[in-house]
Amino acid sequence: MVSSEAAETGERLDQHHSPETNGRMAVCRRCGTQTNGPDGDHHVPEGRRVARSNDWLDAQSRLSNIDRVRGSFDK
Questions:
Q1: Measured distance CA(40)–CA(20) in Å, rounded
Q2: Residue 35 phi/psi, 5° resolution?
Q3: Which of 23, 43, 50, 74 could cross-link with 13 by S-S, CB 3.0 to 4.6 Å?
Q4: What is residue 3's DSSP assignment?
Q5: pTM for the full model?
């Protein structure tokens, strides 16, 4: 059974990027989160790793903001 927080985090990860697996393991190479299978159609974070996945998403958001600000100075 997947908690609602884990399902929400999985959806956020799916919106951020498509899972990238190596075809043998059900783990996304980009963010390290479990997927629904080796082919990786969707992210399915385990309950105890939801916080780590949320931290990863927050860090990606900060990096995106930094890149956007840097880009505005280059113009």
A1: 7
A2: -115, 175
A3: 43
A4: -
A5: 0.84
Show the tokens assigned to 60. Answer: 């990606």
Q: What is the pLDDT of residues 37-72, one digit of tens each?
A: 999 899 999 988 999 999 999 999 999 999 999 888
Q: What angle do CA 70, 67, 75 make, to 5 degrees?
A: 35
Other Cβ atoms within 10 Å of 14 Cβ, number: 15
- Concatenating the DSSP letter of every residue in 26-74 gives SB-TTT--BBSSTT-SSB---GGGHHHHHHHHHHHHHHHHHHHHHHHHH
pLDDT tens for 16-41 read 999 999 989 999 999 999 999 999 89
- Burial class, 68, CB count within 10 angstroms (exposed 0-12 / middle 13-18 / buried 19+): exposed
Among 9, 2, 6, CA closest to 57 = 9
